[in-house]
Write the structure tokens for this entry.
Amino acid sequence: MPAPVFLTVSVCGTGIDTGFFMSLTLQDISRLARLARLDLDAEHSARMLVQLNGFFDTVDQMNAVDTTGVAPLAHPTAVIDHVALRLRDDVASEPNQREANQRSAPAVERGLFLVPKVIE
């Protein structure tokens, strides 16, 4: 299994690279908000800074974990033996009542409801 890969997020055209051990600044948040055409006041910018840096800290922590020899899961519940997936068989459980349902329709053609054209 290959070595862990560190997440690098680069916002195209901003010069911002949030690679390993790097955090955003209020200037970065301001620049991103301007590019996204968001009007963020100082309070929202500060909150966004904390949230984004928290996200990148979490990614750094996950990247620090040695996953050598750990096989990827095909499904998240694959490691939980006592939980059965609640999937049912895909079978028709109701009878086809199309004709009965279309009796009250003003216009029907070949089993389809006809409606007036609303888009020119």
Notes: The first helix runs from residue 26 to 35. The two ends are 58 Å apart (CA to CA).
